[in-house]
Amino acid sequence: MAQTRQREILGKLADAGEEAFSRVAGSQATARLLERMNGMRERVDDLQKRMVGFDRLEKRVAKLEKTVAELQKPKTPRSRSSSGTTARKRTTSGATSRSTTRKKPSS
Fold it and tell me: What are the CA-CA distances from residue 23 to residues 10, 14, 29, 99 (Å)?
C-alpha cells in the first residue's frame, strides 16, 4: 500500500512538472528568449571569424614593422674600388659634353 501511494505521488509530481514545462515552453517570453539566444550565437560566430582575421592582420603588421625597422637602420657603406667609379664618371661626363655641344651652321 505504501508503494502504491509513493507511485501516485511521483506520478502527480511528474504530471505537474510536465504541465509546468509545457506552459513555459509555450509562452511568448520563452520564444523571445530563444530568438535572442540564437541571434547571440550568430553574433558570437561572426565575432570569432573576425578575430581570426584580426590575428592574421596583427601578424602581417608585426612583419611590416620589422621590415621598416630594418630599413631605417643606417646602412654600412659598401666597399667599391675607386678606380672603377672614377672611370665611369670620366666616360659619362665625356660622352655628355660631346653630345650637348653643337656647331652652328655657317651662314
Answer: 20, 14, 11, 101
Q: What is the C-alpha R_g of the chain?
A: 43
What's the DSSP call for residue 26?
A: H
> How many angstroms from the chain centroid is the CA of residue 70?
24
pTM: 0.36
CB within 8 Å of 17: residues ≥ 6 apart: none
Calpha distance 10→2 (Å, rounded): 12
Which pLDDT tens digit goes with each residue over 32-62? 988 999 999 999 999 988 888 888 899 999 9
Instruction: Name every residue whose Cβ is closer than 8 Å to that of residue 24 and which is 6 or more positions away in sequence.
Output: 30
Among 90, 73, 70, residue whose Cα is nearest residue 82: 90
What residues have CB less than 8 Å from 30, skipping those under 6 apart? Answer: 24
Task: Summarize the chain as % helix, strand, coil (round to 5).
Answer: 85, 0, 15
